[in-house]
Amino acid sequence: MRKLYIALCGGIILSGCSSFSERHQASGNFEYLKETTDKQVKYPEGFTPLKDSTAYKIPTVSANANKELIGDKLDIRAPALVMPVAPNSLASDVTEQTEVIFESFLSKDKFQDDLWNKLTTFISSQGYGIGSEQVGRSLSTRTIASDEYFKILFGLDEEVTLDQQYRFDIKVDPQGYKAIVAVSLIQHQEQGQTVELNKFAKRRYESRMLNHFLSQVFVEHHKQLLANRVKVNKGIKLGLGLDNENNTVYQIHAPYELSWEKLATVLPKLGLEVEDRDKSVNTYFTTFKPLKDGFWANLFSGDSSVAEIKLQKNEKYQIKLVERGDLSLLTIVDSKGERLSSEKMQEMLAAFSELMAKKDL
Questions:
Q1: Predicted local distance difference test score (pLDDT) of residue 341
Q2: CA 307 to CA 155: how far, in whole Å?
Q3: Contact yes or no for 193/59 (Cβ under 8 A)
Q4: What CA–CA distance (Å, rounded) separates 155 from 72?
Q5: d(C-alpha 98, C-alpha 182), whole Å
Q6: Which pLDDT band, with edges at 50, 70 and 90, does 17 fall under?
Q7: Which of 153, 285, 250, 169 is nearest to 208 (CA)?
Q8: DSSP structure class, residue 97
Q9: What's the CA gap between 64 and 84, in Å, rounded?
Q10: Which terminal residue of the chain has fewer beta carbons within 10 Å of its beta carbon, N or C?
Q11: What is the band of 25 on the pLDDT scale with cuts at 50, 70, 90?
Q12: How many whole angstroms separate alpha carbon 175 and alpha carbon 327?
């Protein structure tokens, strides 16, 4: 839930009753701008001056600095940060562009399609519209006129208009494990007039837009998890089947994600204690401990109708899951890397099938 709060509230600024411009300025007045440089101190003859200290010396202004950015023209807001709250997202250390890194074990094409669908869903749900696009790689929004999100975020007064366009770029590594989603502000108008922003102000808007996208990705992911849990609790049908190499497997009548989550609760109740699980290799790493000897025997004593499976005590087994369309294929491998025999798979079928089909498990 903590990430959800960050995703929904992280970018909101509490601005009080001050005006839009005042919230960008240092507090207090700017009387210091009227000050003039004092004359050099003259010491009486024979007086030894104190040793100069550089502790309070004001740094020299760079030759490339804009010397007009003083007083109320100086924006004192801190730089905006990208908040990678979406699943499998990471912050980037690149400063030249505003971007976030995504990781996945999908193939390049599937990874790219997944990110593109997330992006177009976001653009559509916000009503931004697509100005131009290179499907799967890049798109620009239409002009976003006085977007309410940014009005709240930046404390814009009702009469202030803000017209912007953004471009999103997706770049997926050839291996498909890493992708970058970058956002660029390509047009910015205030009160109908084009305004040239410095790189800090530009990045501030870009970061907020990227955070807006990441927040929605997180929220949609959270909704999908809840929906999956509801489906999992209804029970899943399981039977015998064959894989592409004619090995005996359990055929689960559910998509991969549902099957994967259901196994997390089913395996321990069969005595297969889960020590680790890794979706990158589609595997649960387990150790078999007979229920009559373990913790689960007391906790789930009401499941006496489920037949006890017979495997080598304290032996390690890998439970592998493979996606096949709307089905999932389950294979069990022992510590020697060998598949369990067809006879053993048939023997354990009733126990697996009954627990997978149980509701509210």
A1: 94
A2: 64
A3: no
A4: 17
A5: 6
A6: very low
A7: 153
A8: S
A9: 34
A10: N
A11: low
A12: 26
pTM higher than the cut 0.70: no
Say which residues have a Cβ less than 8 Å from residue 155's Cβ, sequence separation at least 6.
13, 15, 18, 20, 23
Neighbours of 157 (CB within 10 A): 9
pLDDT of 73 higher than 50: yes
- Kindly state the tokens that stand for 333: 């491998």
Dihedral class, residue 213 (left if φ above 0, else alpha if ψ from -120 to 50, else beta): alpha
Instruction: Report which DSSP code applies to 339.
Output: B
CB neighbours (10 Å) of residue 146?
14
- Which residues, including other chains, have CB under 8 Å from residue 267's CB and lie 6 or more apart? 273, 274, 284, 286, 319
